[in-house]
Amino acid sequence: MSRAPRRRLVPAYLVTGGRQLTSRADLDRLSVLTLADAKLTETPEATAGIGPEHHRLCALLAPGSLSLVECAAHLGLPVSATVVVAADLIESGHLHARGPVPRAQEIDRSLVERLLVGLRTLR
Q: InterPro entries this protein is in (predicted)?
C-alpha cells in the first residue's frame, strides 16, 4: 500500500513572511549556495533571530554546497520560497551564492589544429 505524499503543515507563503520578491535579483535556480562559516550550525547564538526554515537551510548546507533547486527539493519548499529564504541568509552574511557555471564555448578548430601540429613538432 503506497503512502500519500506528506503535505506541509505551514504554507510556503508563511515561511517567507508573505514576501514574494527579494533584493537579490542575481539569484538563479541554478545558483550555488555555500554556508559562509561552518561554525554557524554549531552555535545557536550565531543563527539567533532567523526562522526554522532558515536554520534548516543552514543545516542542509553544512556538509557542502548545493544549488538553489536542490535546496528547495530537500526542504520541500517551492523554489520561489527558497529564493526568499536564501536571500535573507545571504543578506545576513550566513550564506554565499555564486552564479551557475556558464556553458563551455565552442573552441576554434584552427587553434586546436595548430596546437596539435606544434605538439607533433616537439617529438
A: DUF742
